[in-house]
């Protein structure tokens, strides 16, 4: 469970003095500040101007910093990555009509990946709602399927309570985006204002289960103690719950190998001897073999996504299943478990480990044969890094990034480069930021922007594709305006790479509209036009030096790396097939 704490008053200015009467816009900004918001990503417009006018005073007083993006979708992705990198609730603004609808893809991205966000949209005045007024859209209705909760503020006296509820809902239980739609006249109306402090709200009917059922936890422990081929299958819920220490203790105590989903990368040290990497459609061969041969699958904060399971009825078909998740709707949704446990992953593991400590010590030889097998598979089926004679391969570029910047925060776009990055970058907790569930092209650049704003002293690198990066390339202007020190590395094969790979594998090489060569910009010159340092790399001899130079540069950089054009991302599981039926395995 995400625990959100307000800003410590010792290290930040106090809120502006609360007037006896104030506007709805004041109540909004004051409430955001009281909930620890230091950065807002957004774009102004007519319906939200009263809020921006109030924001002007708070920025002038040094209380809050607004980052002006070039497209509202980027504001949503930046707030999303801000939340993923820090565990705090991200905040973005957009105006009514197209400003709000431009946020929908980012809201859906956050919803699919359970990211805590509060989205503030302007709306036409209350009397005009429903009249098809200029720039009116029902953003409340449009986003209902892709939010955790939503509000329309119809009375400014409710503003403080609604914002407090929005933050509580967004950041507790299974996190997610919460929309707050504010009519223009609500922002302007004056009223007698009483602040609502963080944690001071009680929402009837909303009580996420945090502590797991003790009887079920004891039952799970018995299965773990008896298993000879156990496997920990770890998803994004373990990162949300900050369960890294408990996961490590459990894995080491019972000598259980650990595989993670795309969202779970970083929950477990990927350099640890018990780590077997990512599983699923483009997972490691050894992770997929492990899940196919285990006798106990311990799913922690994972949802048995189709890209992970392949053919569902053959996924871990020889195993009993323990499923731990804070969202009761996910437990048993796709795979009925023998032991279902609803609760926060960290809290459940903490209780399980307490129970284990009170019992007998585990037999250190119980999983030894299983671990011997697990350690043989990477030797016989390693991930390959091709080194063609006259060109760079995508894999060696990404591996070099991981080697030269091992402690960086990595964001990605979506496609082949995303899967190679997942295979070859070993990341720590919250240092892997990628659109997993929705697969949103254009996510990586604004995500890097949000992560870098959140963590200005950290190295943030976006691994992008030449097709994906063009979807939000305008955000180079935001990087330049605020001198956001993010590094963008384009793995450039002049294709929509994953589309091309599928067309090659499943559509008899009919490459319908997947080539990006005609019309491809010179990315280095394009970056320079925005005021961002541009670089281009084409040979192996240039690569390490260029990465080192990029990292040393005190400002944003876009590095365009030309790679082999026909490289495919393997291993790969054909849709509808078992994970054991991979092709392209070395």
Question: How many structural units, i.e. domains?
Answer: 3
**What portion of residues belong to β-strands?**
15-25%
Q: CATH topology of the largest domain, which one?
A: Rossmann fold
Number of strands: 22
Q: What strand line-up does the widest sheet have? A: 3-2-4-5-7-6
Unreliable stretches covering 5 or more consecutive residues: 1-10
Largest sheet: 6 strands, parallel
Tell me the name of the CATH homologous superfamily of the largest domain: Thiamin diphosphate (ThDP)-binding fold, Pyr/PP domains
Strand and helix layout:
Elements: E1 21-23, H1 24-34, E2 39-42, H2 49-60, E3 65-68, H3 72-86, E4 90-94, H4 98-101, H5 104-112, E5 117-123, H6 139-142, E6 149-152, H7 159-171, E7 177-183, H8 184-188, E8 190-192, H9 214-226, E9 230-234, H10 236-240, H11 244-254, E10 258-260, E11 275-278, H12 285-293, E12 296-300, H13 306-309, E13 320-325, E14 339-342, H14 345-357, H15 368-380, H16 394-404, E15 409-412, H17 416-424, E16 432-433, H18 444-454, E17 460-465, H19 476-482, E18 487-492, H20 497-506, H21 523-530, E19 533-537, H22 540-552, E20 557-562, E21 572-573, E22 582-583
Parallel strand pairs: 2-3, 2-4, 4-5, 5-7, 6-7, 9-10, 9-12, 10-11, 12-13, 13-14, 15-16, 15-17, 17-18, 18-20, 19-20
Antiparallel strand pairs: 1-8, 21-22
